[in-house]
Amino acid sequence: MSHTAHIPSHRKPRRSASKLAVRAGVAGGVLSTLAMAGTASASPAEPKTESTLEMPVLNMDLAAEVSSAVTTAAENTRLAAVEGELTAQEESARTGAAAEAKQAKEEAQKAAEKKAKEEADRKAEAERAARDSERTTLRTASASDSGSGSGSAKAPQGTGTVTAPATGSAAAIVNFARAQVGKAYVMGGTGPSSFDCSGLVQAAYRQAGISLPRMSQAQSSAGTSVSLSALQPGDILYWGSKGNAYHVAVYVGGGKFVGAQNPSTGIVERSLSYDKPTGAVRVL
After folding, report:
1. pTM confidence score
2. Is the CB of residue 280 less than 8 Å from the CB of residue 231?
3. In the chain, fewer beta carbons within 10 Å around the N or the C end?
4. Contact, 20 vs 14, CB < 8 A?
């Protein structure tokens, strides 16, 4: 081979000046960018803004609030006490009113019973007076006939009644009953100055040491029933039904009885024909 033949060179080909300039410019730009980035990263970070929750401001006086609460509690306690006292007074008033109403009712009932008895007594007295008026002529004629036959008037007697004089306990009962004739009739009276019908019978039997019930209803059920045609002195006469009699008296013999009739007549001795009783009982 000729020494002038072309032999490839192992050296790198030279770059042109223009390419080097371009490359130098690019490198410079990169370095400049990196420098700026470094500067930016080296600069201190801005502080972060933190949000804070603001608490509400308590705009009140604690001492004043406590004082107000205490005052309110005290007032509520006072009102409760007043309300309790009013309730107690109302309950007491209701209790008192109920007691007064009960007492008034009892008094009214007693007054009604008293009025009813007095009305019954007045009615019975009026009926007896009417019958007595109708029998006046017959009694007068009977007394005249008896007087002309014996020289003295005899008391009219019930048909079949026993006329033997009272003795023993019966005498004590009869004598006491007759001793009360003329005294006043007072409802509920038991002596010694006034009696009602059952009070007189009870007091008369007490003279013989016998205790009788107070009311006429119970007295009419005492002892043994006897016929009005077989009466003996000291027997208890009753008007009405047995066990529910409204009037009682003491048979004193001779066809007569002694009884506390009513306020207008008082205690009297009358013939059985004056007001015939319904029945009789014997305790002796």
Report:
1. 0.46
2. yes
3. N
4. no
